[in-house]
Amino acid sequence: MSTETTTVDAGTLADRKSEEPTFTEKFWKIFRGHPGALAGLVGIFIFLLLAIFAPLLAPQNPYDQMRLDILDGLLPPGSRLGDGTLSLLGTDALGRDILSAVLFGLRISMVVALVAVIIGSAIGIFMGLLAAMKGGWVETVVMRLVDLKMSFPGILLALMVLAVFGTGIDKVIIALIIGAWAAEARLVRGVAMSELKKEYIDSARLAGLSDTKIMWRYLFPNSISPVLVVLPMSISGAIGAEATLSFLGVGVPITEPSLGLLIANGNDYILSGKWWISIFPGLVLVTLVLCINVVADRLRDHSNPYLRGKD
Amino acid sequence: MLNFILKRLGQSAVLVLIMSALVFIGMYVVSDPVAVLAGEDFTDEDRAALARELGVDRPLVVQYLSFLGNISKGDFGTSFVYNRPVLELILERLPATLEVAFMAMFIGLVVGIPLGVYSGLNQKKPATKLTSFLTTVGYSVPNFWQGVLLIMLFAVWLQVLPASGRGDTTRLFSADWSLFNLDGLSHMILPALNLAIYTICLQTRLARSGTQEVMYQDYMTFARAKGISRDRLIRRHLVRNILIPIVTITGLQLGALIAFATVTETVFSWPGIGKLLLDSIHSSDRPVVVAYLILITLMFVTINFIVDVLYALLDPRIRYT
Questions:
Q1: Which residues of A touch B266 (CB under 8 A)?
Q2: What is the Cα–Cα distance from A234 to A224, expressed in whole angstroms?
């Protein structure tokens, strides 16, 4: 993983081209002989396409209240709506097509999780590098904050944030960021501390480079590979956390339902046997998280030198 | 050692102060209580009178100190919705959460440890592969979705267990418990199982890796060489040694279970403190939310403190860092 992030300029790259494994070679080294992980990767790719092209694929615009017909409400999978379109996965109480709602919900779930994890990891990486580089009181403050965050379960902190600031997509993202940054700050600080002892940092210091320059140009690219390895795990965690919060009714608003909120809406109808409203969004959520997790497990095992020999 | 405990106690106190200040700022400063409670026809004088009545016209520091003072006396105010003292409300709901959390912990240990030991001893068997797959699924599937599936399977299709509520309760030690009668127990099975799944997966993995490690220790080879039976080997030599990390994690897990009970209690309409918190968030019952957050912070700080002190007792190196 680390070779990907090392900065190599064009001249040396040409010389070393024959020895450096290409992207395809590296890819096969990680995934060959692991059909489960490969299937997971294909699954993630399909889910991404479904989310990106949701407006083109969905038979109905689930947000357009004017187009919904209450007479189409609670139809089982495979029924036809009043206007003749086939509702493959059935409809909810408002007459909204479940397939369309799931495609758009998938979009919201993925966007919320990705934005939260990217911002959260960026903050975590920055705090970790800063703590390792500066030491002293900066390090103490950062690591105390990490300890503070780590001493509470994520769900509880998220509920605290949402209880204080109210609900909404932006608030959910804030809650997820607060849940995501600390583990990564700790990870990056650990790697950066051991990198700082190496000779290339000493020579950069002797060359008179400023701390800021050393941090961004040398420490940063050499310290982030462990974060890249845990990134998929953070994303699937964030998708699950967002779904949980939305299910509890403190997450995304009803006008922009994510998969979690769709499950919550269907939950009221389970006891009356209308299983499809809740089950389909749930299946999509679980499959998505499972796909990401098998890929994440593979990446983690591959990056672990103790296990690599067994590949 | 006394020095370490005092230092650690000081840190815990600072942590509680920081968290209470955050909760205070969040609940009383970020959103203005006057704006929440004032009617539309309120004049400026009415608003000022209301602010005086609520005490929010005083300087922030004074407000915070009186907030802390009231809390230390056990006075968390009165619930807007139930019109009763908040502490009473929470203490009344606490047994429901505790019994389901302990039941889940019990199920997690009783199922997880044997599964893990079996997997560690028989690494090549199909049952081990299946267990490993199931723990991955158990980790991946969100807790609330497992609850929905349990309701669908046992309450809707098989119709063998109730889907929600607490059922009959028995009065014992001036609290109501579902644990001690059949109807209550049948209501408790699904929530406890839902809460236990994560614990089962965690304990299985812990016990499996512990077993794999201990199996190759010299004392195990020696015990085998002595010719003692396989049963005795597992019982006396293996399980006792893998229990050490399991006991530590179990302590920390209990707090997490109580926090996660918010999700399970909502899915199964189980009237514990977690459901109380969510209902109060939805109905903007601010005193209840504040009290829950403060009490749960105190609980976590206490658990962490005890675990740290126990670690220091077991491992002298920690005391000097």
A1: 247-248
A2: 14
